[in-house]
Amino acid sequence: MIRNATLPDGSRHDVEIRDGRIAAFLPPATNEPGVMLLPPLVDGHIHLDKTLLGLPWVPNQAAGNAVADRIEAERKVRAARTVSEEETGANLVKQVVASGTLHMRSHVDIDNQLGLRNLHAVLAIRERFRDLVTIQIVAFPQSGLLRSPGTAALLDEAVAQGADLVGGLDPVGIDGDLAGHLDPIFAIASRHGVGIDLHLHDGGEGGIAQMLAIAERTRTSGLKGKVAISHAFALGSVPTDLAARTADTLAEAGIAIMSHGPGAATMPPLPLLRAHGVEVFGGSDNIRDAWSPFGNGDMLERAMLIGYRANFRHDHELRLAYEMVTEAAARVLGLADYGIRIGGPADFVAIEAETLAEAVAARPRRKWVLKAGRVLARDGVLALP
Fold first, then answer.
1. What is the reported pLDDT for 64?
2. Rounded-to-integer distance, Cα 362 and Cα 78, Å
3. Half-sphere exposure (CA, 13 Å, Cβ side) for 326?
């Protein structure tokens, strides 16, 4: 029994747990202050194979801020690794579980230098932590398709070997060929019956044109509700009326938009997208890797960063940021058994807060993280080996 718990809707209950699931919500037996219970946090966009967590500090080596510059810098960093991706990725999983994330979607680099090495590392991580966290894997062509010959075949094989989705990267900005990049990605998705999650950094009307092309292919391929576009900076760099028309097209195609609250790039207009029926969700993106020295995998902190970058001030706006790292991300990942309800899993993040807005703004330490009624972490420290 968890006494006098405040649920996300603001109601208070004694929560009875039996056999790892929620058996009942009972009237509080005490007026003593209790905890707020949140459902598990969900990281909709993480890179487990990229992190350098556990290695000595690695300075950022990118010559510039362009995506291509960072790709080349990362190829050098990963060639000089002294600790495997499996070990550093496991370090990150332990850290994010301790902060309350029990579900994630990890993009995994695949190119003609790496082959499927990183996929195999993350598959091993997924198996190792299968009782703690669910991990969806996106086969991600970080070096492009045309710039990295043979990668399309590797993506196809990656899905055959266990990747859950196929990814893409700036069809025009990186590969310079919209159809040449999108056609094989959609062909792989259709052939294997999997979803798609593409990185799209390209801004302005050129980025919007790529989104519209992705939406058209989504519609004609029968993949409605199975496609996401990560970053989507273009939506925040065009006039509002164009963003609104694009949002209608995205909503019609069932395309979700991921934002991590980027430090310098333009933010997609999250309230506008939501108002037009687009699912918006959040992710960590890079954590202590060759792309960024920042990040810790704490999705409540990420919700705060999203809200800060989006200039959210009111409680209903902060609730949107909260939903991006819980319910909305769960819907995008297709998590059927998710949420706090009678009969649902006794999976909770317990914090000291009175409202969701306070939880996002203050991102308090996690008092407990529970899965199936079992304590996985206390006060931000993993309780299991």
1. 74
2. 36
3. 23
